[in-house]
Design goal:
heterodimer, A: alpha+beta, Alpha-Beta Plaits, two-stranded antiparallel ribbon, 4 strands, globular, B: alpha/beta, FAD/NAD(P)-binding domain, Enolase-like, domain 1, 3 domains, six-stranded mixed sheet, about 25% helix, binds flavin-adenine dinucleotide, binds iron/sulfur cluster, dioxygenase activity (chain B), dioxygenase (chain B)
Chain lengths: ~60, ~400
């Protein structure tokens, strides 16, 4: 299954990913992204990738 | 096979071509850009890139390899000069003509030029070329004068001062950021400059700029003159819509379009990013905004609507913009400028500022929020705004965040 990863160093807490897919992304008290799941079903991939592309610092990746 | 031409190769254009593919569009996709550069991102140009912390690789939005993988043809280095809507053609400066079934206009905005023509030393910040030139200008040891105390001006001031320059920011408004966040919060933004040793001359205009790079004089309306090695002018942006003057499209401070990002009376012409003046159904009015996230969101809507014309999506976002100034990460959601008043949770003074200002109208509706160094609060307010919550809800939920107690 495609796997979602986050570059926690790069994340700046802009929060765009969370607005795009709040069931997949969250943010911790320090303003760093938290992945609520990393296994992304193929049928969900487009939506999760779309939210990933809304990240201003390109911190999120969906890979096979 | 159907062809989509996307004109403008910054974030709105690049996200459009990416979203076309992820929305399943299999036809031909051409991305046209005036600049010969591979697409790059703008927000870092006044921040990490200007500071020298990030290089050009770090701000690339698209590489040639990635474009090939997406099967996107790049036509960089040749501006679009004319759009023929009825004939479905875009005419480029190099004389070539691209036919299309749908076209996406993403030519963005340009920095309003300096009204004071001098030979050298006066900069704007919009393109990578601009940012490189300013970066070189900041290598001069002498003082820097920033004209315009809005977001870009404030960011440039913060970056220049971190590079060790003596900086003065001039603006005719008494509280430039106050226009967006209200006068009271605006004072804190002015204080932020002062805390970092940057001088402000707010409420004062610029009469003239004379001299050359390294030896400039900025004459102010109050009769004083500031010496400067480098001057930066950040006085806003105007939409790049001149090339559309003969297109027959409704062009009025940007290209007017409907809630589906389609130009008025031209449904195969879609408009995204800073160029679009679209109808926001939630607000019941046409808006043009110059925010990164709006460029990305509108690109996704436009791409979807091209790929799935039977299932049109509406572009009705909650406004969102961020800015990094000194040690503040500032995030603004909604429309604080329209609010009657606000309430502050946390503190904006001292070296460990962390706060959220919640904006409301006389009916107690939540209209917007400004957060400083508190992303969690931003995410919360952004969600509540989308859900139509009251300001009281927002304040109660903010108070329940663990960091609220630390901040208070
Ligand atoms: C220095 C700076 C800092 C910023 N910081 C922030 C921030 O912190 N947060 C935030 O939310 N927003 C910020 N913004 C705003 C954000 O970058 C813009 O909203 C965003 O870039 C808009 O994207 P766009 O693609 O619509 O337009 P633009 O970025 O303006 O890009 C338009 C592109 O079209 C090209 N073009 C123009 N005319 C033609 C033509 N005739 N033919 C072909 N190509 C053409 C241009 O060369 C350019 O590449 C900042 C902007 C700047 C300049
Ligand atoms: S959009 Fe990017 S920067 Fe923002 S919270 Fe998500 S991962 Fe972090």
């Amino acid at each position: 299954m495609p796997r979602l990863t986050a570059d926690h160093e790069a994340c700046q807490g802009y929060g765009n990913c969370i607005t795009g897919a709040p069931d997949v992304y969250d943010i911790d008290d320090d303003g760093v992204v938290v992945l609520l799941t990393q296994e992304i079903p193929e049928g969900d991939r487009a939506r999760v990738e779309e939210a990933a592309r809304s990240c201003p610092v390109d911190a999120l990746r969906v890979e096979d | 096979m159907s062809t989509v031409v996307v004109v403008g190769s910054s974030v709105a254009g690049v996200r459009t071509v990416q979203a076309l593919r992820s929305e399943g569009f299999t036809g031909r996709v051409v991305l046209v850009g005036a600049e010969p550069e591979l697409p790059y991102d703008k927000p870092p140009l006044s921040k990490q890139f200007l500071a020298g912390a990030w290089d050009t690789d770090r701000i690339r939005l698209l590489t040639a390899e990635r474009a090939a993988e997406l099967d996107v043809e790049l036509r960089l280095g040749s501006a679009a000069e004319r759009l023929d809507v009825a004939g479905r053609q875009v005419h480029l400066a190099d004389g070539s003509v691209l036919g299309f079934d749908a076209v996406v206009l993403a030519t963005g905005a340009a920095a309003r030029p300096s009204p004071w023509p001098v030979e050298s030393g006066v900069h704007v910040v919009r393109s990578l070329t601009d940012a490189r030139a300013l970066r070189a200008g900041l290598d001069h040891e002498g003082p820097v004068v920033v004209v315009g105390g809005g977001f870009i001006g404030a960011e440039v001031a913060a970056t220049a001062s971190a590079l060790g320059r003596a900086v003065t920011v001039v603006d005719p408004l008494p509280s430039p950021i106050g226009r967006v966040v209200g006068a009271e919060l605006g004072e804190h933004f002015t204080g932020l400059h002062h805390r970092h040793g940057v001088v402000t001359r707010f409420g004062t205009g610029v009469e003239s700029v004379t001299g050359v790079a390294g030896d400039l004089a900025v004459a102010l309306t109050d009769g004083t003159t500031l010496p400067a090695a480098t001057v930066v002018v950040g006085i806003g942006a105007t939409p790049n819509d001149g090339w559309l003057a003969t297109s027959g499209l409704l062009v009025e401070n940007g290209v007017t379009c409907d809630e589906h990002c389609r130009a008025v009376d031209a449904p195969d012409v879609l408009v995204v990013g800073d160029l679009a003046r679209w109808y926001h159904p939630g607000h019941g009015e046409h808006l043009r905004v110059e925010h990164w996230t709006n460029a990305v969101d509108s690109a996704v809507v436009a791409a979807h609507n091209i790929a799935h014309p039977d299932d049109l999506r509406t572009h009705a976002p909650v406004e969102y913009v961020w800015s990094d100034q000194y040690d503040w990460r500032i995030q603004i959601v909604g429309r604080p400028a329209r609010a009657a008043r606000h309430e502050l949770v946390g503190s904006l003074t001292g070296d460990a500022a962390r706060a959220a200002a919640v904006y409301t109208d006389d009916e107690g509706r939540l209209l917007g929020a400004v957060t400083v160094n508190w992303p969690k609060a931003l995410v919360l307010c952004r969600r509540l705004l989308g859900a139509g919550a009251t300001a009281a809800d927002a304040l109660a939920q903010l108070a329940a965040l663990p960091a609220a107690r630390v901040a208070a």
